[in-house]
From TrEMBL:
Source organism superkingdom: Eukaryota
Species the sequence originates in: Perkinsus marinus (strain ATCC 50983 / TXsc)
Location of the region described as Disordered in the Swiss-Prot/TrEMBL record: 371-409
Compositional bias of kind Low complexity: 384-395
Alphabetized Gene3D superfamilies for the sequence: 3.90.550.50, DnaJ domain (1.10.287.110)
The protein's name in its UniProt record: J domain-containing protein
Annotated compartments: Golgi apparatus membrane
Family per record: Belongs to the glycosyltransferase 31 family.
Keyword Membrane: yes
Keyword field contains Transferase: yes
Topology with respect to the bilayer: Single-pass type II membrane protein
Keywords: Glycosyltransferase, Golgi apparatus, Membrane, Signal, Signal-anchor, Transferase, Transmembrane, Transmembrane helix
Length: 607
C-alpha cells in the first residue's frame, strides 16, 4: 500500500513538472512571437529597439499653455503609434523635459498636477539651472534622460514648443531617406552662419563671445536649426554619455553641430519651415517662402499655441490630402458640405484665429451655388474693368467673399513713398548738406532754410508760388532725412557704383584703385569706425584687422525698394504677415548678393 502511494505521488510530481515546463515554453514562445510581430523591431545585427522614434521637447517649467497646446495640437496625430499597436505603425514616444527648480509654490503645485495627469514630463537633474544660455546643456541632458529611461530607439527628434510637426509626412520622409536602419544620421535644416562675436555686437540677441574665443573660428560649423532636427540612437548616446565632459556652448543648435562635428555620420537636409503660411487648395504644406524645392514641410517653426489647435482641428475636420497621407484623391463628404473652396481650388482660406471663425460663419451663411452658377459669377467678375487690371499672383485673398479680390503687385521702388514735389530732386541738395551729415547738422540746416524760404516773406510777389514749393520740399526732405529708418531707405535707393576691381593694369597702383572702392562701400557699415586700406607702410596687425573687418562686413544697406507688395494693402493681420514674409524673401536675395559682392571685393584685394 505504501509503495503504491509513493508511486502515485511520484507520477503526480512528474506530471506537474511536465506541465510547468510546457507552460514556460508556451509563454516564452508567445513573448518571442509578440516581440517579433509588433512595432518593437529587431535592427541590424539582431539588436532590438523599444521605440522607433522619440520626440524630445525641452520646455521651461512655467510653459503650461505651450505644452498643452502641443498635446491638444499636432500630438493628437500620435494616437495609434503606441508600442504593440495592432496596426503595425511606427512606435513613437513624446516627452517634455523641464528643470527641477520652481519659481514659486503655485508653479510647483501646477507642475506636479500636470506631471501626474499626463505622465509625459521628465525632470532634469537638480544641479542643472534652467537658463536660456544653458539650452545646449539642457538638450544634451534631455538626450541622456531619453537614453537612460526609454531604452533603445532608432531616432530622436528634438523640437520646440512652438514647432508644429506633420507626423505622417515626417515618417514618410524617414522612409524615403532610409533613416530607420540604425546608421548614424543627423537630419535638419542646416546652416553655416558667421559668429557674432565682436564687442560692439554684445547687445545683439545672437551675440556669442565664447565660440570664437574657444575655437578661433569666425563661422559656425554645419548645424541644424533648433526648430527641429533628428539624430540616430548612437549619436544621442554619445551626447548623453560622452567619454569626456563636453564644452557648453551658448546656442543649443550650434552646440549639437559642434559636438558632432568630429563624428562620422550621414547628414540629411530635412524640409523645416519657419512660420510658413498655408497655401494652395485649402491647406497645402508646400512652403514657397523658405525655398525648399517644392518639398512638403515636415516641421513648421514659430507657430503660436492657438494655431497648433486650429491646424490640427482643420486636419481632423476636413481630412485634407495636403495634411495627411491618403490613397484616395476624392474630397471627404464633410469637406464637400462645409467648405466649397476645397472643391474648385479657389484662393486659399487664410488661417488664423478670429478670422477663421468668421470664415466658418460665412460658409454657413453663404448659399451654395451650383457649378454653372459659380462659373457664371466668375465670368461676370472677370469681365469687369477692375478685375481685368488685377494681378494673378498667389498672395492670400482678402475676406470679401468666395471670389476674393486679388491684390495688385506693387512695382519696384514704391516701398519708400516720397511726396510728388520731391520728384527729380536730391534730398541732400534740398537741405544743402552732404550725404554724411549728422542729425544735428540736418536740423541746423533745416531751421536756417525754413526761415529763409518761409512763404510769408514773398507774400504778394510773383515768387510766392515758387517759394511755397521750395518751402514744401524742405519740409518733406527733412521728414525723410530726420527719420533714421527712412533715411537708410532713401540712401539705399540712390545710385551706387557696385563695380569690383579685378585685375590691375601695369601702371595702376593698388592703393589708388582699391582705396576709393573700400571708402565708398564703408558708408554701408553698421560698425564704426571703419578701418581704411592704408598704404605700404601700414602695420601688419592693422592690415589683419582691416581684412578681418571686411570679411565679416555688417551692412545696413536697405533693399526695401525692391519689395513687391505693400503692407498697407493687407486686409488682416495674417495677410500682413504673409506680405512681410514675401518682401523679406526678396530682400534676402539682394542681401545675399550684396554680401557676395563685398566678399568678392575683399578676395580681389587679397590676391
Amino acid at each position: 500500500m505504501a509503495d503504491r502511494l509513493v508511486g502515485c505521488h511520484s507520477r503526480l510530481f512528474l506530471l506537474l513538472l511536465i506541465l510547468t515546463n510546457l507552460c514556460v515554453a508556451v509563454q516564452e514562445q508567445q513573448q518571442q512571437s509578440t516581440f517579433e510581430g509588433n512595432t518593437i523591431l529587431k535592427g541590424d545585427g539582431g539588436q532590438a529597439y523599444d521605440w522607433d522614434l522619440v520626440i524630445v521637447i525641452p520646455s521651461h517649467i512655467t510653459e503650461f499653455s505651450r505644452r498643452c497646446a502641443v498635446r491638444d495640437g499636432w500630438a493628437r496625430q500620435l494616437r495609434g503609434h503606441e508600442q504593440n499597436n495592432r496596426a503595425g505603425l511606427r512606435s513613437i514616444k513624446l516627452l517634455f523635459t523641464v528643470g527641477a527648480h520652481y519659481p514659486d509654490n503655485s508653479t510647483r503645485d501646477t507642475a506636479m498636477a500636470e506631471m501626474k495627469q499626463f505622465d509625459d514630463i521628465i525632470t532634469l537633474p537638480s544641479d542643472f539651472v534652467d537658463r536660456y544660455d544653458a539650452l545646449g546643456t539642457k538638450v544634451r541632458l534631455s538626450f541622456r534622460e531619453a537614453v537612460d529611461r526609454l531604452g533603445r530607439f532608432r531616432l530622436v527628434l528634438k523640437a520646440d514648443t512652438d514647432s508644429y510637426v506633420h507626423v505622417e509626412k515626417l515618417l514618410d520622409f524617414f522612409d524615403k531617406e532610409n533613416m530607420w536602419n540604425g546608421d548614424p544620421v543627423y537630419a535638419g535644416s542646416f546652416r553655416h552662419a558667421p559668429v557674432m562675436w565682436e564687442p560692439e555686437d554684445k547687445d545683439h540677441k545672437w551675440f556669442d563671445g565664447e565660440f570664437t574665443k574657444m575655437t578661433g573660428l569666425t563661422q559656425y560649423p554645419w548645424n541644424a536649426q533648433g526648430g527641429g532636427y533628428v539624430i540616430s540612437y548612437d549619436l544621442a548616446k554619445y551626447l548623453a554619455h560622452p567619454p569626456l565632459e563636453l564644452k557648453s556652448w551658448t546656442h543649443e543648435d550650434v552646440g549639437v553641430g559642434a559636438w558632432l562635428m568630429a563624428l562620422d555620420y550621414r547628414r540629411v537636409d530635412m524640409p523645416v519651415g519657419f512660420a510658413a503660411p498655408e497655401c494652395g487648395c485649402a491647406l497645402d504644406c508646400v512652403d514657397p517662402i523658405n525655398d525648399l524645392g517644392g518639398r512638403d514641410l515636415v516641421i513648421d517653426h514659430y507657430v503660436p499655441p492657438f494655431l497648433h489647435r486650429v491646424r490640427q482641428r482643420r486636419m481632423e475636420l476636413f481630412g485634407d490630402d495636403c495634411w495627411v497621407s491618403s490613397l484616395s484623391n476624392t474630397i471627404s463628404p464633410l469637406a464637400e458640405k462645409v467648405i466649397p473652396v476645397n472643391n474648385m481650388c479657389y484662393s486659399p482660406m487664410w488661417l488664423g484665429g478670429e478670422d477663421l471663425q468668421n470664415d466658418f460663419h460665412r460658409v454657413w451663411e453663404k448659399p451654395r451655388l451650383s457649378r454653372s452658377e459659380r462659373r457664371r459669377a466668375h465670368k461676370e467678375n472677370s469681365d469687369t474693368p477692375e478685375s481685368s487690371a488685377e494681378s494673378t499672383s498667389e498672395e492670400p485673398s482678402s475676406r470679401t467673399g468666395w471670389s476674393a479680390k486679388r491684390k495688385t503687385k506693387k512695382p519696384i521702388g514704391e516701398q519708400l513713398k516720397l511726396n510728388k514735389v520731391l520728384d527729380g530732386f536730391n534730398l541732400y541738395d534740398i537741405l544743402k548738406i552732404s550725404p554724411t551729415a549728422t542729425q544735428e547738422q540736418i536740423k541746423k540746416s533745416y531751421r536756417r532754410l525754413i526761415l529763409e524760404h518761409h512763404p510769408d516773406k514773398k507774400k504778394g510777389s510773383a515768387e510766392e508760388e515758387e517759394e511755397k514749393m521750395i518751402f514744401l520740399r524742405i519740409q518733406e526732405a527733412f521728414e525723410v532725412l530726420s527719420d533714421e529708418r527712412r533715411r537708410k531707405q532713401y540712401d539705399s535707393s540712390l545710385p551706387f557704383d557696385e563695380d569690383v576691381p579685378t585685375e590691375l593694369e601695369e601702371d595702376e597702383d593698388f592703393y589708388e584703385v582699391f582705396g576709393p572702392v573700400f571708402d565708398s562701400n564703408a558708408r554701408w557699415s553698421n560698425r564704426r569706425p571703419v578701418p581704411r586700406l592704408g598704404d605700404d607702410a601700414s602695420d601688419l596687425n592693422k592690415v589683419k584687422r582691416f581684412y578681418h573687418f571686411w570679411m565679416n562686413f555688417d551692412s545696413w544697406r536697405d533693399f526695401s525698394q525692391h519689395d513687391e507688395y505693400d503692407v498697407a494693402d493687407a486686409s488682416c493681420r495674417e495677410e500682413r504677415r504673409w506680405v512681410e514674409r514675401q518682401n523679406q524673401r526678396i530682400r534676402r536675395k539682394y542681401e545675399t548678393a550684396e554680401a557676395s559682392r563685398v566678399r568678392k571685393l575683399v578676395e580681389s584685394a587679397m590676391q
